[in-house]
Design brief:
mainly alpha, Serine Threonine Protein Phosphatase 5, Tetratricopeptide repeat, TPR-like_helical_dom_sf, single chain, SecYEG/CpoB_TPR, Tetratricopeptide repeat protein
Length: about 250
């Protein structure tokens, strides 16, 4: 056991782009089968970091990198899919909120990509219940850096499936996580769904949040949507202010 751990650690740290990721995955799965939770987390984070370095996205939030590891396994390292799925489920059922959130993001990524590879499409409307459950586990953790990433994916799923109830969860989670651009992206998605489904008050809440917090083109689009919503409510003064703000954002 000790010899195998050391060998996999050396291979993972070697910088060999062909062998470092599989070695890190072997190390993580080996540690998971032994059951030492700290060693499991360390090995999983090593796999996350090795892949991030290989793909040159080290600056991404760790929650997004964890999801990326799951998608990578399902797409490029399919010999690990079953053992990785078992390892992720074990960590999701642990007591530590960080371990749960890390694993839940990885599991969501693995299952989403596995659907595409297995069935030939990436339509999240056909996503297994485990994907939604995994993202909701992350929301329940209350860890802002993880919650906002999960909210973005829940927002995407709800927008594509028309699931208004799921959109409400994503809206609240994104807004509670802070006022980052990631939060604004999630809120913008569910805001469009609310507008389309006639949920006017919730759409207004979402668009106001984006207008007030985004520093990108999302704010201009949200201002236009907010103007439309307020016009439909008969609030001409509020609508005029929203349209004016949209024009200001164009400059």
């Amino acid at each position: 056991m000790a010899g195998a751990v050391e060998a996999f650690q050396l291979a993972a740290a070697s910088g060999d782009t062909r062998h470092s990721v599989p070695a890190a995955l072997h190390l993580w799965i080996l540690q998971s089968e032994v059951g030492d939770s700290r060693a499991v987390d360390e090995a999983y984070l090593l796999a996350v970091d090795v892949l991030a370095q290989k793909r040159a996205y080290e600056d991404m939030p760790v929650a997004q990198k964890s999801l990326g590891l799951g998608t990578h396994i399902a797409c490029y390292q399919r010999e690990f899919v079953q053992s990785a799925r078992r390892a992720l489920h074990r960590s999701v059922n642990s007591e530590d909120p960080v371990s749960v959130s890390l694993a839940a993001m990885g599991l969501a990524g693995l299952e989403m990509q596995d659907l595409e590879v297995t069935y030939g499409y990436a339509d999240v409307s056909a996503a297994k219940a485990v994907i939604k459950r995994s993202l909701l586990r992350v929301i329940d953790s209350g860890l802002p850096d993880y919650v906002v990433v999960a909210a973005k994916w829940l927002a995407s799923i709800s927008e594509q499936t028309g699931d208004v109830d799921l959109a409400r969860i994503a809206l609240r989670a994104a807004m509670d996580s802070g006022n980052s651009e990631d939060a604004c992206h999630a809120v913008s998605r569910v805001g469009r769904l609310f507008k389309r489904e006639g949920q006017t008050e919730e759409a207004i809440t979402a668009m106001r949040f984006v207008v007030e917090n985004s520093q990108t083109g999302l704010a201009r689009l949200a201002s236009e949507d907010l103007g439309d919503l307020l016009t439909a409510q008969g609030d001409t003064e509020g609508a005029r202010a929203a349209y004016h703000r949209a024009r200001e954002r164009e400059r």
